[in-house]
Specification:
single chain; mainly alpha; 102 residues
């Protein structure tokens, strides 16, 4: 059986290996299972922080790499977001329960 119209491209080359690439192990890409297990092993506070940082487009590693002034600004912003979310939840629950005697 033959497939017509398919030929090897002159631009495609076979991967080459060098002695230096054989000694270093390639980084294993994170799988969905790895991400899930990392999330499961987090405390609720860590999950909230990760979600807020993710919304800001940052990772914990990026925050750790920042200088003190930038990191303090990010920490203050996280604190303000958590406080605002907490206030929103409290306001939603106001009047939810009432003491009624019949």
């Amino acid at each position: 059986m033959s497939i017509s119209g398919v030929s090897a491209s002159p631009y495609v080359t076979a991967p080459t290996t060098s002695s230096s690439s054989l000694t270093a192990a390639p980084a294993k890409p994170k799988s969905a299972e790895d991400d899930f297990m990392a999330m499961v092993n987090m405390t609720p506070a860590q999950r909230i922080r990760a979600a807020i940082l993710g919304g800001m487009g940052l990772t914990e590693e990026q925050v750790k790499a920042m200088d003190t002034k930038e990191r303090d600004a990010i920490e203050a912003k996280i604190k303000a977001i958590i406080k605002q979310q907490f206030q929103t939840q409290v306001e939603k629950k106001t009047g939810m329960f009432a003491d009624v005697k019949v």
